[in-house]
Design brief:
This protein has two domains: 2-49 and 199-294, no CATH class; 56-86 and 104-193, no CATH class. The protein has helices at residues 2-13, 18-21, 66-69, 134-157, 167-188, and strands at 25-27, 29-33, 36-40, 46-58, 79-91, 106-109, 190-202, 210-217, 221-223, 231-238, 257-272, 275-294. Helix 4 runs antiparallel to helix 5 (167-188). A hairpin with a 3-residue loop joins strand 8 (210-217) and strand 9. It is built from five helices and twelve strands. The strands form three sheets. Strands 1, 8, 9, 10, 11 and 12 form a six-stranded antiparallel sheet that branches. A four-stranded antiparallel sheet has the order 5-4-7-6, with no helix packed on it. Strands 2-3 form a two-stranded antiparallel sheet. By secondary structure, the protein is an alpha+beta fold.
């Protein structure tokens, strides 16, 4: 009983801050405290974090000759593809309950790239003034790749550069690798991977259980909810059928009571194209119920 009174005293003394401190129960309506009358209207805000990943493939200028001169297949067209990697839903008002934020946006270079969109500017032999066809340029680039590989093997086996060792050998091999990648890039193209994270805030309404957080396009990634070209990223709130109170309710014969709102622990799911990507059970006041608590007698 003593513990119950202490809990109620804490609830009463922090009425104006309750919606920020306790996500499960809060005083409701006009509350009289030592500081005077205050109005408490418990509400819940939800935050939805969506992480999308984009993989871009850029076709190399010599891609059509990769099979002929290098014996490998290369992408022949540029391609951009977005996908929703994961999502998280949590309480926006309570830092201790909100899902851990995802890492910041980033762009990762996957293969043979020093810049995100530019290929190495590799020119044919400048000592010749004759025009070089694209296939001839591809053949020269392929021969350069094989030449670099031979030089690397000669350095490793000691057949060339007998005085090259230690850091000098390491630097030489790194430079050969850099040049080889620049030439390979002309055939195989490059792939970059970009990851973006967006946070959306949802204000639940007790008359509505489904919300379009944003939209998703395989070509453009995360777009606004008003962009009808994308697929919906949907937040579905399913309230519990029963709502239990963390504090005992006042009996029918109690004459001195105080109203409090008990949140409904609802199931919140985030889905894209009908596929679920996040699920949490969260207390939401808008789907809760009002109860009466016994007011401790003044001594």
């Amino acid at each position: 009983m003593k513990r119950l009174l202490m809990l109620f005293a804490l609830l009463l003394s922090t009425a104006t801050l309750m919606a920020q401190q306790n996500p499960y129960i809060a005083l409701s309506g006009v509350v009289n405290t030592a500081e005077g009358a205050t109005l408490s209207a418990p509400t819940t805000l939800l935050s939805v974090d969506v992480e999308a990943e984009c993989e871009r493939t850029l076709c190399g200028p010599y891609a059509r000759y990769a099979q002929k001169y290098l014996g490998v297949r290369a992408p022949l067209t540029d391609k951009t593809e977005w996908r929703v990697k994961r999502a998280a839903v949590g309480l926006a008002d309570f830092s201790s309950y909100v899902q851990a934020p995802f890492e910041a946006d980033e762009t990762e270079v996957m293969t043979y790239a020093d810049a995100a969109n530019d290929f190495a500017a590799i020119q044919p032999d400048k000592s010749s003034t004759s025009a070089v066809t694209l296939e001839d340029a591809a053949l020269m680039a392929a021969n350069t790749i094989f030449s670099l590989r031979r030089h690397r093997m000669e350095l490793i086996t000691g057949e060339a550069g007998e005085n090259v060792f230690g850091e000098g050998l390491k630097s030489a091999l790194e430079e050969i690798a850099r040049q080889e990648q620049a030439y390979l890039e002309l055939f195989l193209g490059k792939r970059t991977k970009e990851r973006v994270v967006r946070r959306f805030t949802v204000y639940p309404d007790h008359t509505k259980q489904q919300y379009v957080v944003c939209r998703f396009s395989a070509q453009d990634g995360l777009v606004s909810a008003s962009d009808l070209t994308g697929d919906m990223v949907v937040l579905q709130i399913t309230p519990s059928e029963s709502i239990s109170s963390p504090l005992p309710e006042a009996g029918m014969k109690e004459t001195s009571t105080i109203p409090a709102m008990v949140a409904n622990v609802a199931t919140c799911t985030v889905s894209v194209r009908g596929e679920e990507v996040a699920r949490e059970q969260l207390p939401i006041f808008q789907f809760g119920r009002t109860i009466q608590l016994s007011q401790p007698r003044q001594r």
